[in-house]
Amino acid sequence: MKNRQPAYQPTSRSKTVKVGAAASAAALSLLLAACGGQTTPAANAGTGEKVDGGTIRYAHLQEPACVYGGWVQQAFLSRQVLDSLVSQTEDGSIVPWLAEKWKVSEDQLTWTFTLKPGLEFTDGTPLDAQAVSDNFEFWQAGGNGTVQAHIGDYYSSSRAIDAKTLEVKLSDPFTPFLSALSQGYFGIQSPTALGTRSEAENCEAPIGSGPFTVGEWKRGQSITFNRNDAYNSAPQNAKHQGPAYVDSVVWSFIQDNTSRFGSLASGESDAIGEVPTVDFDTAKSQFDVQQYLTPGRPVTLSLNTVEGPFTDVKVRQAFAYSADRKAVVDSAFLGVVPFEGNGTVSSSTPGYNPDVAVDYPFDAAKANTLLDQAGWTERSAEGTRTKDGKELEVKIVFGLNSIVTAEGATALQNLQEQVKATGFKVTLVPATQAELFSGQFSTPDSYDAQLGYWTSPHAGILHINFRQNTEKKPNPANTTFYNNAEIEDIILKANSAKTTAEANKLYGQAQQLLSDQAVAVGLYTQTSSVASNPKLKDIWLEASQGEPVFHDAYFTE
Amino acid sequence: MSTTTLTPGKPGTNTRTSIASLLGGIPVAAVISTAVLAFFVIAALAPRLLTGADPLAIDLGAALQAPSSDHWFGTDQSGRDLYTRVVYGTRESLLIGLGATGLAIGIATVLGVTAGLGGRFADGLINRGLEVLFAFPVLLLAMLFVTIYGPSVTTQIVAVGLGTAPGYARMIRGQVLAVRNSGYVEAAHALGHSRWRVLRQHVFPNAMRPLIAVVTLGVGQSIVWASGLAFLGLGVAPPSPEWGALLDAGRMFITKAWWLEVMPGLAIVALALAATSLGRHLQTKLEGSQP
Amino acid sequence: MSILETRENGLAPGTDPASSPRRRDRHAIAGLRSLGTRLLTAAGVVWAAATFTFLIQSLLPGDRATLLLNQLNGQIQERTAAELAPINEKYGFTDPLFVQYFRFLGDLATGNLGISYQLHKPVTEVIGDQIAPTIVLTFTSLLIAWVISTLVIVGTAKRNRFFSSVASGLEALAAGLPQYWLGVILLVVFALNLGLFPVVGGTGIGGLLLPALTLGIPLAGFLGQVIRTEFESGMDQPFALTARMRGMGDTGVRLRHVLRHSVLPGITLSGWALGSLFSGAVIAESIFTRPGLGKVLVTAVNSRDLPVVCGIVILVAVIYVLANLLVDIAYTLIDPRLKKS
Predict the structure, then answer these.
(1) Would you tell me how many other CB atoms lie within 10 Å of the CB of residue A53?
(2) Within 13 A of B82's CA, how many CA atoms are on the CB side?
């Protein structure tokens, strides 16, 4: 605690204050922005030598109802206690985790995994091929809806050939199979625990073979993860094998951004997730900051292609041309989160097509021409375009605080203001979590555009989001309601391509075609980030979804 | 409120010391309060008189600027002028305050008068109902209501209005009972005036008089309430400059741009304080002029 | 919160229609009312609150089964009937509403509040885990409000015109502070910048003061306004004069006689304030990252976790009923004249 630095740097306090009210506020402002005698633990002092044991106090944003589930917030937690079959690295390649090797048949329909020897769940159940097969069956039976979204259309059956050998049969070739398996949703649980324990127990404390076990969960406060002393199945891309260095991780939930960052600055936390954008620069100067750009679908506006003004492709394209989306995003996120022009796949996803991202630059002239062509020629007194007496009104629904952050909401407001010039009248509808999840805004009559993202370590996300939505085979994850047999065919071909390179080429084509139709307008990348005290080393963000991994982390003196 | 305040037919034993009484007859506090309220009323009715800027116009290059001579209250995360937003937000905030209070008093009058005059059965029934409403967490009522009808000025008005109605109802009932049993109403009855005439000429006006003060108090409080809903993400939809929404949006910037949180908060406090202060003044006046 | 305001306004006439003796009669009768009647009324209040909550939650738009399934998977989409069938069957969502209602009432009557849809735990357990911090917070806030308001009033009322008006102005100011705004500013100033308190409240003593002040200061403003009026008129009453004539010092008169006379409306207000403090706790718990029922309630409403919402409403109703029982008892203790009648 040698250097006494202010935790917060006021941006500017020397401007002249004119108004009476402002003057009285100035006194308060001094207290609010003042550099109090705050000591930051970010001291570079100390020998830097590794200390064994200790407890990592980590503060996270959202608290889901269960540790295991199909929501990315649950994957954050279950990653700490469950291992998956394989692990994805930063460059997109797949390395061993529970499976030490694997092979696929010539027709790409049969995958054979060989498990590491001597694996055991923390309840003593052996982690053998049968146990993994049981997990596949559990997922398929509805144990995890997101798993089903990824492989449900391809998985056929699985069986244990012997204790160490698992065979998985697919109905069609699925190139991103291993990538999908690397996600937290695919964490392998003890079949004994799944079969014999209550729903509450499996919700609160799933049993896996991971580096930690779930200890006490104080709802609304924190979960304690205790070290699994027998841990012997770290993924190949971990920094070490064997049990974790620290004794435990206290994973607390601090929703308020100011408090979360404040807890790191005051030394009450050793590391925090979701570093607030306003504090990002401060964090970078005082702490170790890592940022991860989540692959999959970026945070994007899905335009409703079956009802309302966006049924016309020209109007969709005009909307995309109407705003300087990069400026909108950079300003709202203070430059911390990158703009993503590609509305279907994010830049960190293998198979991303970068050309698509620049398809619709800010071009008011083009937008105006397109709208004129589309028949929206008249203008109302307010400047909104009209056609047959109807205003060009667009209702954008977004899940504030559950799916879209406050910064995202700011970006939308900036966008709303910018597209006014070309004649769009945007209404923003912040939806509550209950409204969203109960399906109130899932039908074509409930929105013109919807802001959302979907994490996935592979471009096969296109299959989830753009597979046709037909009566026979509904696809409710297709939030644009856009049905195009040709594009679906290309995506299916990509999913079943012989090589990843070939698959990515086809995924790129599909992105281009979707972009030509302007069905989704990209805004920004979903991110996750961690800021940690410099005395705490080797936290890393895993590559499939950006969950912090504490297995390799240790304190230094 | 004091016992004396609400006892009609008796000259108010007004011993209240207020800042007003400091300077002899000149009610300084009341004058200041009136000026503050006048400012807000102008802001609500004709915001253009107070600012030339557009509350929605963004200027991405000028985001998060501290208060200066150009931007008296600074600018927000989209470069919008905060002073302009506070001025324009007055209309919605005041609408919520007046609307919610009006709705609450409307409901409360019906319930309170019915209970006060409707005999034992109606009184008992309404009292039980009020008891239940009191036991029901008001915030929950408001939350459920906004969850059903979505966040907007109207839902805020209804949610806050419904939540605060029971308090007024109980008060009106008490007033009605008090007036009904007072000497001059008995006298009017004795003079052979019709029931309806007594009600209209004596009971109603006398029972309602203290409400004038209460309304001014309630307006500020309703705005405070609405800001609580905004905090829970149930406020008016962006980009509205409603004060509660401004407070909610400013929270995340408090360590970097304090003005975003402090200025709208001061506006709420100023309005609530001015309204309360004027309400007290009016109340004192009314006490002195009772029949 | 305005309910305080309105309740405060409602208070005097509600308990004091026409004249003081009438109020005392009423309270005396209330005090003597048989325990059975009281319990019956209390049960009625709880029943009505529970029914109300049940109806609102059941009639909310959107499908509950869809919500549960989507929440589990972090997705926002329509679901097929086949996907929803097991959930509907498990919770009986497709049964006619009255069947669900009677099942709910039956469970309630046997003290079974049901199992949380989200946490898969019995509601009694969910509430039991979280109730302590909320109770500690609400009662500490109430205590702080009383300490502040009585200190200020005993110290300033009728002593010096200047201090007295400043104090009464401050009371109005405090009463007009948005709790949420006050909380954020207290947090930033005292926890983040001055470092006097932990940023993350937790359940320790250090983490209690700021949230309790957040709720206590506005309440102190309301209490102060109510008590001050009574106190000032009490200072002119004959009994105060008599006490002085007997040679009692000014402070003694204030504390032993006038204060006692003037706290009665404040006590009534406190009974009503508990419900409002609970609403405030929702906000204070969020700002200061405190565990507690308020947070649980917000989450439960957001995820339409009906059993939890109902459980908390019933709990608050019970606490409200109990608190007002205590208020009546406090009345008779403080004002012994009530016992005689």
Answers:
(1) 12
(2) 34
Q: Do B140 and C6 touch (CB under 8 A)?
A: no
Does pTM top 0.80 for this prediction? yes
- Are A180 and A460 a contacting pair, CB within 8 Å? yes
Q: What type of residue sits at position C203?
A: T
Task: Quote the tokens at residue A212.
Answer: 């930690």
- CA dist A282 and C233 (Å) reads 57
Nearest Cα residue to A450 out of A470, A476, A471: A476
Instruction: List the beta bridge partners of residue A377.
Output: none
- Of A240, A204, A194, nearest to A224 by C-alpha is A204
* Distance in Å, alpha carbon of A212 to nearest chain C alpha carbon: 22
d(CA B150, CA B234): 8
Mark yes or no for CB contact C282/B232 under 8 Å: yes
Q: Are C211 and C284 in contact (CB under 8 A)?
A: yes
The answer, for A8 touching chain C at a CB cutoff of 8 Å, is yes
Does the interface predicted TM-score (ipTM) exceed 0.90? Answer: no
B247 touches chain C (CB under 8 A): yes
B-chain residues near C1 (CB < 8 A): 138, 221, 224-225, 228
Q: Which helix (H) or strand (E) holds A296?
A: strand A296-303
Q: Are A94 and A235 in contact (CB under 8 A)?
A: no
pLDDT along chain A (557 residues), means of 10: 36 36 52 47 62 95 90 94 96 94 95 96 96 96 90 95 96 95 96 92 94 92 95 95 96 92 94 95 95 96 96 97 96 95 95 95 96 95 93 94 89 96 94 82 93 94 93 89 96 94 96 96 96 96 95 94
Distance CA B263, CA A188 (A): 52
> What is the number of CB-based contacts under 8 A between chain B and chain C?
242
How crowded is residue C166: how many other Cβ atoms within 10 Å of its Cβ? Answer: 15
Instruction: List CB contacts of C17: < 8 A, sequence separation 6 or more.
Output: B174, B177, B178, B181, C23
Partner-chain contact A28 B258, CB within 8 Å: yes
DSSP state, residue A404: B
Interface touch B225/C9, C-beta < 8 Å = no
Is the model more confident about B209 or about A85?
A: A85
Q: How many CB pairs under 8 A join A and B?
A: 119
3-state secondary structure chain B: CCCCCCCCCCCCCCCCCCHHHHCCCCCHHHHHHHHHHHHHHHHHHCHHHCCCCCCCCCCHHHCCCCCCCCCCCCECCCCCEHHHHHHHHHHHHHHHHHHHHHHHHHHHHHHHHHHHHCHHHHHHHHHHHHHHHHHCCHHHHHHHHHHHHCCCHHHHHHHHHHHHHHHHHHHHHHHHHHHHCCHHHHHHHHCCCCHHHHHHHHHHHHHHHHHHHHHHHHHHHHHHHHHHHHHCCCCCCCCCCCHHHHHHHHHHHCCCCCHHHHHHHHHHHHHHHHHHHHHHHHHHHHHHCCC
Are B29 and C169 in contact (CB < 8 Å)? Answer: yes
The residue written with tokens 């325990």 in the block is C35
Please indicate whether, in this complex, the C-beta atoms of B255 and C188 are within 8 angstroms of each other: yes
- Residues paired with A426 in a beta bridge: A394
Chain B residue with CA closest to A432: the answer is B147
Chain centroid offset of residue A30 CA? 38
Residue C181, classed as helix, strand or coil, is helix
* Paired tokens of A303: 């335009």
Q: Which residues of A touch B258 (CB under 8 A)?
A: 10, 28-29, 32-33
Q: Do B77 and A331 touch (CB under 8 A)?
A: yes
Task: Supply C125's token pair.
Answer: 């357990």
- pLDDT, one tens digit per residue, over B91-118 is 999 999 999 999 999 998 898 888 887 7
